[in-house]
Write a structure and sequence with these properties.
21% helix, alpha/beta, three-stranded mixed β-sheet, five-stranded mixed β-sheet, 26% strand, 148 residues
């Protein structure tokens, strides 16, 4: 009886770990001004969500730098436009821009970085976008946040 109880307990524990939400995503960027994904899915049970950005290209950040920026969909273009003048040292983001929910630093070829944020602060009924704020990249390098 004790062995059965122990076996059931171990199976329950193991299956619970297998069913745990994946609270991270890896997004790759390249020298062709592209993200490898157009959608990042966030499980509603995640307390913290981490996005790892990898630049799989070879060009330096002053030529083909990329970052990952999260905003409401309605704020995306304004944040990108305002960030153009901020410069590379500020990751092409305006200082203190409260429309920016989360962002990584700007990276060049062969580099990676990450950012973590609290998804419970996002409204599942709102539309959110992620994008690269390097000047001119937002047109091709953007995607959607989807809640599951």
């Amino acid at each position: 009886m004790i062995r059965k109880l122990l076996a059931v307990s171990l199976l329950t524990l193991a299956s619970g770990q297998l069913l745990a939400a994946e609270c991270k995503a890896t997004v790759e960027s390249n020298d062709m001004m592209q993200f490898t994904t157009k959608t990042v899915e966030i499980d509603k049970s995640c307390k913290t969500f981490t996005v790892e950005l990898k630049h799989v290209g070879t060009l330096p950040k002053n030529v083909m730098g990329h970052n990952w920026v999260l905003t409401k969909a309605a704020d995306m273009q304004g944040v990108a436009t305002d960030g153009m003048g901020a410069g590379i040292d500020k990751d092409h983001l305006k200082d203190g821009d409260d429309r920016v929910i989360a962002h990584t630093k700007l990276i060049g070829g062969g580099e990676s970085t990450s950012v973590s944020f609290d998804p419970s602060k996002l409204n599942p009924n709102e539309k959110y976008k992620f994008f690269c704020s390097f000047p001119g990249h937002v047109a091709m390098m953007q995607g959607d946040i989807v809640f599951k």
